[in-house]
Please model this.
Amino acid sequence: MPFPHDVKIEALSKSGRRCSLCLRYKGVKVEVHHIEPESVSHDNTIDNAITLCFDCHSDVGHYNPKHPKGNKLTAVELRRHRDRLWKLVEEGKTLPEKNLYQQYLEFLRRAFDRPAFTTPLCQEGRMEDFDKAIDDTVLALNTGLLRTRDNHVVADLGFGKSSLVNADWVTELGMVEGQLLQLRADVAEALSTGKLKCCHAYCYCGDEECIRQIDQLRADIIDRVNNVLIDSGVGSMPNLMRLRM
Model:
């Protein structure tokens, strides 16, 4: 038995006609699916409704437990995806004219536009600020939350890289996260071993090869982010560190 008309309308409105799994806006190409099969639950209320695009609906409905490949989408997981999308729509964090991945990648350009990826180490003000900038960039990558040095929130998308539809982008940005953590570790090690030290107020110097490797890693990070931005059609950002090398 299908959902009553008013339940379908509520589900479509709450979701903004987006798919609850891939988050893409699908317009008329979206279906209202029973989270718990209606034949079992006899539940045709909004609590059991989730909007899915045709592709994701197929993934949810055609899992064969006798020959399992991958992981079945459980009712608990489906509700979490559904509730996440409803919250994004309610808070106005989805723009009808843009796919969510475009919003996220444009946000990513902003997250990496900071001195930690453009300023030579010899001109770095305080390494404590540099370290926090790396932490904040990792946070932005994973959650869509961008904050300033004094923890003022300037953007909050409500989702991170794991929500992207393109698996290659998710993999590439996962590698970016690994490089960011490596960058933070390399700087910490350079400071502890004396290869990098504060020689004057707001000025750092030290082993030239060590500094070159750190700058190389920062340039590589921006190159990798740009690979995703270019592939998505969003457009790359200047790699100032690469230009200075």
Summary: The first helix runs from residue 5 to 15. The mean pLDDT is 86. The chain has nine helices and six strands. The longest strand covers residues 30-34.
